[in-house]
## 1
Amino acid sequence: MIINKCEVNRMTQKTEVPPPVPPRESGRPQVTMEPFVPELIEHGAPVRGEPQTLNNRLFVQLQVFTGCLDPEPVVEAVRNSGLEAAVYANLNDPRGIGVLLMSEDPSLFAKTARGLLIGPAFSGLTPLPDFTMLGRTYSSGREPNLEDFLLYKVRRHALNPDYPWGIWYPLRRIGAFNRLSRGDQGRILMEHGTVGRGYGELGLAVDIRLECHGLDRDDNEFVIGLIGPELYPLSKLVKDMRPTVQTSEYIQDMGPFFVGHVIYQASLPDSAKGGSGGY
């Protein structure tokens, strides 16, 4: 085979690699991500110019059972446990009861409370996990007495013998609410809160509001307890809140609803009593 000189030159000539093409600019400014610092302290309204902070909160759990033909052994067991608790008769289940437990230490629910709920008084009952609720108190930054709000107010409501009725339910907002500005969120919550305050000022209802992010089986965000002397105003309060912007536009899920009437309440701790020594 005869190869001429020109072909040899072409075969031995080095192939030049083109320089890399720089990435095309998007026209958008580069985003600098700041480190995220978790805020784990609760904040209240300043008092005489001094900030209020607290790193304690109250955890509240509702456990519901059916198959209870005689509630007295349950009441006796809860009373003897010494736990801060209330026992409800389930209005929608003639064999049903609910046990409301409170503690600043959430490990209590895995230890002492667990021992109570698997003890002899409960061994013949059937748990209803669809109704289990667990939440914690939280601050909005506007509380005039932060410690009382976080640790004692819920106890006064749940253990008040003048408030035997309770409606408990979880809820979850749609994600779009979390993208609103704080101002828009505040206006929506203010409208919603005005309805509740109207009932509260007449002594018809008090509310217990708990956060349950990451604590709820069904990924709910809040646990609500409506407590009062009579059942009808609590039901009417739920209805009157339905037209508010929060409920009509930003609630994804509500319920199930547990409706109970108190058959036992532990004594209110002295530390939780109001300034007059009462509820």
## 2
Amino acid sequence: MPHFELSQLQMKAIFLSCVRPDSISLPIINIEAFIFFIFFFIKVINTNMNFKNKLISGLFLKRYKRFFADIKINNKIVTAHCPNTGSMQGLLNKGNKVWLSKTDNPNRKLKYTLEIIEDNKSKVGVNTHSANKIIYHSLKNRLIKEFKKYLNIKPEVKFGTNTRFDFLLMNKKEKIFIEVKNVTLSRKKGLAEFPDAITTRGLKHINELVKASRKKFKIFIIFLIQRDDCNSFKIAKDIDPDYADAMNQAIKNKLNILCYDCKFSSKGIKLNNKIKFKK
């Protein structure tokens, strides 16, 4: 679906042109008003990263071998793919409500994928692949203020000999590397944290971003909090002190940090509010 970027002033001007009976006839007014509201409707619905199919609800039973989860759907137990390599601390309580997606691929062994877990009545997106999809959708639709002027967006771009960053953004003057981290951990009310386990991969990404900065790239990490119950974010130093120390050093070397939470609906996940990064 195409995206239309309209300022409030432009939308007001269009709307006023739709209701001037002294200059245009009633049928034309109706047509122009209809077009205006179509523009507005597209603007609103284009903020969601939609699921391909309607999600299926169930109850969490157990996770094992990291990538498998047993889920009870009505009176049937199914094994779902768990697309999260972290500890998922605080989320794996037996009986927690969950939502699964179901694949249309006849060749896939596990037909279900764990997408969302409910924690204390708040939904938490646990599919780490969704994080990049949400950010990619937001970048393409210019929903993130800091990146609105960058129209050239490339996902999964190689840097150096053994690194790929999630996104490369370019315009005529600048190049930006973005790495996205999915956040699910919340041990204190209103506070999101990352990581939920020691992350050697995350540490490598920080160090590689600093190298990119020395080659004149702007560098960003977006911590996407796939929750809607947190208003601030910090690095969990007690879980991974090396990651925390590297983060502090990288910030001194021009690493930019953005933190956003999410909103959930039956159709998809929406990038929501920018939240505070607590150093």
